């Protein structure tokens, strides 16, 4: 049971209009946003930040951003965000082989060295204590420029917020996210846990 009950999507019309963004990314408005709208300034600021962070500015593709989000969420243990991130990666065109093997990104041939560097950065930046070091930096700079690194850290930081929000709230997970979680993550023990 969630800590705070989500409100109706019609509760705040400005939030509802902004939240149409999630119909593209997930196919539904997430319950996390429906809970945030108890303070509409938070829901609106969050949606606008999400749009800015997830905007496709070039080589850090929309699919890679969602895989970065998954690695970050997996590191922190937020099952709600793991399912959302893998669902969004699928909807944004991640290769089937990558979706099926996201747990093995470090060694699986479906991932390029540039993608591995980005995903290793996500892992290092998401654990406590933070593990971003000179080796992570050197690997990033082999493949990515500073603007692209800022984009990646924007995703990691956004999901740091979401992981804490949704795990603390025990946000109820939507059926579409459960389907994606079961399909791509279930073989490694993913379950919805407290997000019923």
Automatic annotation (TrEMBL):
Species this protein is from: Kordia algicida OT-1
InterPro entries per record: AhpD-like, CMD-like
GO MF annotations in UniProt: peroxiredoxin activity
Pfam families, alphabetized: CMD
Protein name in the entry: Carboxymuconolactone decarboxylase
Residue stretches making up the Carboxymuconolactone decarboxylase-like domain: 40-120
